[in-house]
């Protein structure tokens, strides 16, 4: 995706609507002011109408792939790109859309006869997004049909799926992929532009019997070369020698104490544990020695960052080890936090390329050597944090402060929409009891002075202001949260007749309401908004009280928002020591908490990636190349240091994801090190540029 421009609703929308006609040679695939509505069909229960010069679309969460399909007959063989003039009509922030081009008989599920790409509207209002069209390659489908389990594969140097004959396009679709939330958006125009078609490398023209396997023994793509690629064991040893010299030359910032706190800065009371304080209008951590401290480090410091599924894909890989090989160990090594996600998808067989390469690089004592190198690197790079989801053996070495995360294991609200997991029922008696058991199992870490806190849960699907209650009403009668909600409705309305009058419903009695699993009528909105807030408070209050009963001196960091409601943020601020967000943007300059909320904020995840080092997906925030990646890193962290609310930022993640995808297909170039444990020098330069100066920047010097 290449967002060409983004505008606010109002003047920006007026400018978009006033856009001129397509230039000579361009092909207009859709124009809301001219294309007959009979050419538009609904996808996945998407609702649409032509209004105010726009094809206005409403899509519902949990409905698969809702949107619109525009039908026609076009020859795009002379076109190299398509622009989409779109509008995000919703108050929610980032709108992720999928665009698809169809040939006759297209089968999107089998990636046959389609070209698929993603576009993203970064805020409310109008935007023009551009996608590049791929060249036509006769062997593309034969190879592409055998590729699976990757967010982007090797053939998708443009697009996500590329199996399209551009001379025979009969449909253009715009839709959301499995949305959790309801959305309102619009399409103004879709225009294909003529231009030179990009040439394809020789390997993209290979038939399947020559293309496979396409991954080498190190887990790298075979058919491209790039700076830093490992070609043999000698490259691993040479890279290690170079890095040891670099670490000796850069031992770390001066004026830091053992925790990475600002020893040369102002002092506060030393309590032996981490805490937060607001000092002269700016939030800070205070470390166990009383030094001001700002958290800067990566998530998932583990050798097992590149675990990839093998099921039905073993032919992707060159010379997987035999069962009697020393490298057979890496069929069983894994990331413990993420392994339940593999199990939930019934993935049975995996290979851990990144740990196998650590074994090659460091030898028989590879686990200890890898851990030692991780701590040395972080200090040398100007970092002081091993962030959550890291190898506990690395965390517990008392060399770098660390944090971690729990994922609650208690029963769900059955009707809730699926995010990573469904929303937990805070009224269920097992909610606190199960969490208490989880806490006791991690008591040694919770009491460790090097542990500065824990997140609880991750990127919860909150829905909108009324959704938690609506999902509760769509749950079975025995759902504890539903029983609680109906009891509150009884107290508020008195009799069922008064509730029916308010809601516009026709329940025969309270038992009928309990038994119903239908979506509540529009008249229930106020009651649902109120109980959504009740549920939200019960969740945060229950977590905090249970957490502090076991670990009163450990900081509670909240749930790492990635989408939220105002009620959720306000309740997090009420009960959490720190409010946490996963924020994938270029800077944090525009970030603000809701009015009246003053709380320290921690970024749980951010990253940038590019396509110039062999991976197929740049990451959630793509940049042009590695130099741009280093610059983007410096700019993001600097913006956080200058913002009075932020007390730290955590990069996702220490090592690249696998070239062929993890459990959910993510295969991002998002590491500080590649699959062979080789650091990206341009990124490290950007980290050091801001890391060595972070306390001076934070203090405004």
Characterization of this structure:
With 701 residues, the chain is α+β, with helices and mostly antiparallel strands. It has two domains: 2-198, Galactose-binding lectin (Jelly Rolls, Sandwich); 213-312 and 357-461 and 535-701, Alpha-Beta Barrel (TIM Barrel), CATH 3.20.20. Helices cover 27% and strands 20% of the residues. The strands form six sheets. Strands 1, 2, 4, 5, 7, 10 and 13 form a seven-stranded antiparallel sheet that branches. β23, α17 (626-641) and β24 form a beta-alpha-beta unit. The longest helix is centred in the last third of the chain and has 26 residues, at 525-550. The radius of gyration is 27 Å and the shape is globular. The two termini are 38 Å apart.
Question: Which terms would index this structure?
Answer:
6-stranded antiparallel sheet, 701 residues, Jelly Rolls, TIM Barrel
Percentage of β-strand residues: 15-25%
Q: Briefly note the CATH topology name of the largest domain.
A: TIM Barrel
- Unreliably modeled segments: 1-22
Shape: globular
CATH superfamily descriptor of the largest domain: Glycosidases
- Please report the distance between the alpha carbons of the first and last residues: 38 Å
Please give the number of β-strands.
24
CATH class call of the largest domain? Alpha Beta
Q: If you average the pLDDT, what whole number results?
A: 93
Q: How helix-rich are the residues, as a percent range?
A: 25-40%
Number of helices: 19
The secondary-structure class comes to alpha+beta
Q: Per CATH, which architecture of the largest domain?
A: Alpha-Beta Barrel
């Amino acid at each position: 995706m290449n967002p060409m421009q983004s505008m606010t609703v109002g003047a920006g929308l007026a400018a978009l609507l006033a856009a001129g006609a397509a230039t000579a040679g361009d092909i207009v695939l859709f124009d809301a002011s001219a294309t007959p509505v009979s050419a538009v069909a609904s996808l996945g229960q998407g609702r649409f109408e032509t209004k105010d010069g726009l094809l206005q679309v409403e899509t519902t969460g949990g409905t698969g792939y809702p949107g619109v399909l525009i039908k026609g007959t076009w020859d795009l063989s002379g076109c190299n790109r398509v622009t989409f003039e779109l509008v995000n009509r919703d108050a929610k922030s980032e709108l992720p859309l999928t665009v698809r081009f169809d040939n006759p008989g297209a089968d999107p599920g089998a990636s046959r006869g389609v070209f698929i790409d993603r576009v993203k509207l970064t805020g409310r209002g109008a935007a023009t997004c551009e996608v590049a069209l791929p060249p036509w390659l006769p062997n593309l489908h034969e190879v592409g049909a055998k590729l699976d389990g990757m967010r982007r594969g090797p053939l998708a140097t443009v697009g996500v799926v590329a199996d399209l004959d551009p001379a025979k396009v009969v449909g253009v679709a715009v839709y959301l992929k499995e949305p959790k939330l309801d959305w309102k958006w619009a399409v103004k125009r879709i225009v294909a532009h003529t231009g030179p078609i990009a040439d394809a490398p020789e390997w993209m023209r290979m038939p399947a019997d020559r293309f496979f396997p396409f991954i080498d023994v190190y887990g790298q793509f075979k058919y491209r070369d790039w700076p830093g690629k490992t070609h043999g064991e000698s490259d691993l040893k040479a890279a290690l020698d170079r890095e040891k010299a670099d670490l000796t030359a850069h031992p770390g910032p001066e004026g830091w104490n053992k925790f990475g706190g600002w020893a040369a800065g102002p002092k506060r009371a030393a309590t032996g544990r981490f805490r937060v304080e607001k000092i002269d209008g700016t939030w800070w951590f205070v470390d166990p020695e009383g030094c001001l401290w700002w958290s800067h480090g990566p998530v998932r410091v583990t050798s097992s960052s590149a675990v990839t599924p093998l099921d039905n894909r073993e032919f992707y890989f060159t010379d997987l080890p035999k069962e009697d090989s020393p490298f057979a160990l890496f069929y069983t090594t894994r990331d413990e936090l993420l392994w339940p996600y593999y199990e939930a998808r019934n993935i049975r067989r995996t290979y851990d390329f990144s740990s196998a390469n650590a074994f090659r690089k460091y030898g028989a004592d590879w686990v200890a050597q890898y851990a030692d190198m991780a701590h040395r690197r972080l200090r040398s790079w100007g970092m002081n944090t091993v962030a959550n989801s890291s190898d506990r053996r690395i965390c517990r070495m008392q060399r770098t402060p660390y944090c971690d995360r729990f994922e609650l294991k208690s029963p769900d609200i059955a009707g809730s929409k699926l995010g990573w997991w469904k929303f937990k029922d805070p009224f269920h008696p097992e909610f606190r009891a199960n969490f208490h058991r989880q806490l006791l199992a991690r008591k040694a870490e919770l009491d460790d002075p090097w542990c500065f806190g824990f997140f609880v849960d991750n990127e919860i699907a909150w829905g909108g202001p009324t959704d938690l209650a609506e999902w509760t009403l769509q749950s079975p009668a025995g759902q504890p949260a539903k029983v609680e909600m109906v009891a509150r409705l009884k107290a508020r309305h008195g009799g069922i007749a008064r509730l029916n009058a308010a809601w516009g419903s026709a329940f025969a009695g309270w038992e009928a309401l309990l038994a119903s699993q239908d979506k509540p009528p529009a008249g229930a909105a106020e009651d649902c908004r109120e109980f959504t807030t009740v549920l939200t408070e019960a969740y945060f209050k229950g977590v905090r009280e249970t957490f502090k009963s076991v670990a009163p001196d450990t900081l509670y960091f909240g749930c790492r928002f990635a989408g939220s409601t105002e009620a959720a943020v306000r309740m997090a601020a009420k009960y959490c020591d720190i409010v946490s967000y996963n924020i994938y943007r270029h800077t944090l300059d525009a970030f603000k908490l809701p009015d009246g909320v003053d709380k320290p904020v921690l970024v749980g995840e951010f990253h940038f990636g590019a396509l110039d080092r062999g991976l197929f997906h740049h990451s959630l925030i793509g940049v042009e190349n590695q130099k741009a990646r280093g610059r983007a890193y410096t700019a993001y962290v600097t913006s956080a240091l200058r913002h009075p609310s932020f007390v730290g930022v955590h990069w996702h993640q220490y090592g690249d994801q696998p070239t062929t995808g993890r459990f959910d297909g993510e295969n991002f170039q998002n590491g500080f090190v590649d699959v062979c444990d080789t650091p990206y020098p341009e990124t490290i330069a950007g980290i050091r540029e801001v890391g060595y100066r972070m306390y001076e920047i934070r203090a405004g010097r």
